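User: Can you write out an input/output pair for a complex, sequences first and structure second?

Assistant: Here is one pair. Inputs:
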Amino acid sequence: MAAPDYKELISRLPRTFGPALNDQLHQWEMLFPAEQRQLKAQMDWLAALPPAEFKTLFAPIVQVEDRMDLPKWQPGSTGLSIHDVGVMARSPLYPQWRQQVEKVFGRIDDAIQASGAMKPVPRLVVSILPAGLPKPGDPLWPELAEVGQWVQLDRPFLKVEETLVPAIVKRKAPAGLEPDETTWVIECGKRLSAESGGVTSLSWDALEKVRREFLNRLNGISRDIKSADQTTNDLKRLDIRKLLDPATGASPRLREFLRGILLSGNGSLVFNNSFVQWAASEALRRAQPQVLLAGFGLRQKLKPFSSVVLFEDQNRSNPTPDQDDPAGSLTDAAFLAQYVYLAAQRVSAYQGHTVSVFAMEELDRVLVVDPRGKQNVPARLTGEALTARIVAWLTGAA
Amino acid sequence: MMNRRTLIQTLIAAVAQRLAAAPAAAVHARSKRLVLVTIGGIRRQESFSEKGIVNVPHLFNDLLPQSLFYPYTVNEGVTSHFNSIASILTGVWQHVDDWGSEKPTHPTMFHYLKAGRPADPNDCWVVTSNKQLTANISPGINVILAKQLLIEAVERIIMGQSSRKSLEREQLLQEMKAVLETDYERIGWGVPATSTFQDPTVKKTFVDALAGFIHGPTAPVSGDELTLTVGMEVLKRLAPAMLMMNFSDVEVAHSGSYSLHLGGIRRSDMLCHKLWQFIQASPELKENTTLLIMNEFGRDPDGSSTNGFFNHRTDTETCRMAWSMVLGPAIRKPQVVERVVRQIDFAPSMGSWMGFEAVKAAGAHLPEIVG
């Protein structure tokens, strides 16, 4: 899809919308198909709005903006610097502005949904906790268990996964989905990527070189905002292809997606499980794949004193031997798996159209949240039956 | 989660139990001292709630029954660290650059305190983990970035910029002493006059604190533990009229480890208790020192578009509603105050107890505080 021209429309929108929208249009080719469709639908709907309604829709935002001390953006400004974000966030009117923006986008998205422009497809999100964790003392995911159903399997999930993942990958995807909208794997290790062969995948372990390069550069930031902005801009321009495996390096969209993840904090450069959660949440929001598999992992214990410099290599100059933190990893991964589920619930494409599965590799039970209700999920299933049900759901045969 | 009514009833019961067993509150001594402790972002669900109390056993069981506790202390300003701390200190919501390039736009409690007393370079001390909290926060105060000293020493060793090559306790102590000797200004420490650091008492205060941290019986390693060790040494040797400490281990939440965030909350809980025990064990401090403990804000709700507990920027009750606890001679009696108060109410209230008027503060005087 070619980049549309919305210059005239953007000039009529509230001032605070310009830099972010210009940035998105400027990088149109780097947007995923779902993002392009959504942005185009939003802008086309706004462009078609009668002038009086357009004015009424944005009036509350414009009124707040008029009272805010905003950065001096030019009409073609693209993106927001750390300084710009800081200026907006510390404005006494920022909470009001944010509330009004959320309201307006809620209205726009409701209108697009009602128009039927975005056709829903059945979706699947699977979160997998690794082997080697202690047996949970308390029941896992108690809030989700209220809306979902625990399913007893005939073998540990790790054994089920060996056939389940290839079957998901081989399914017939719904018509109209592009390759990077079908299946994504985001994981700490490399096993799921290997099992699923050829799908879009990001592995914390496989990304070590690029993570180290980003950390080294970010560690060089001195105590001022100019230095932070400069380093961020340098990292936005850095050619990272040579630091990535060939498949990731060859895809400009995936490369830029990854760069965005590593530059947007949220622990993506620090902890393996944070990387999985944040990358999965962003993939759900942006790429909107039909299937997302999130594989969590074991984190090592932080070492004495090195732990005060989280962005540094924890092994450097530290005589304390490496040691896994199974208990901490269980707490982190279980909590973050729930965050992946919540991230999907915020995206309209997934709301009411997604089966969510929560598994622990060594456990012979999985928690299934089915949008059709928990009564639709049997309490016992063989591995083959679970696989068949999931594939049937994704292909519309269920 | 525990609702407001149940929470209040539980808290009141805890206070009542203590009141029945304790003698009447002590009378004031002549010189009043304030120790203010702020902790980064802690949500109610991980602290003062049915599920969260397990993370704050000392605050709940040991300190709350003898305290004036405001479980609903709202932060109506910018929920960032520098702005929140500056708002508490000034009694006015601050909207300044959070990177510390701008000073608070109103006088702080330190400023008011110093204005009403004969000049004493050791009156006001800040021991903090917040890099932005330099001497800019208020003129004429001493600012010690304890955690930054530890970070600097660790980084020098691991980057190969030191003759010491390993993060072993003794080598780290030597490196911290070396930074203290040569580089304290570069890492952001601020004192009213350079002679302050040459003062043998002041120097010994830091060296002893560092040695205490490195050789402590509980093998401390975290930035907050160092902050407390230095803070207690400052109290013991320099006895300032006002000392502020900022704990920030809970902020590991920004990197998304929930277990380490909970560990940070439990450590803050333990350190606050240790600090109060230290004050109570000191004949010079016991009768005249008030301890005020506040979390700066909560954190974002699970499921928010800002990635939940990682951050603290939503305009939600989960993020804005904090709590505050006052212990010592400034309180009329231990009690739990059910109404919502504001963080900016504490500057005028504590000022009133200490004997200064925070004339520019927008907050109100809290009647439960002696003034």
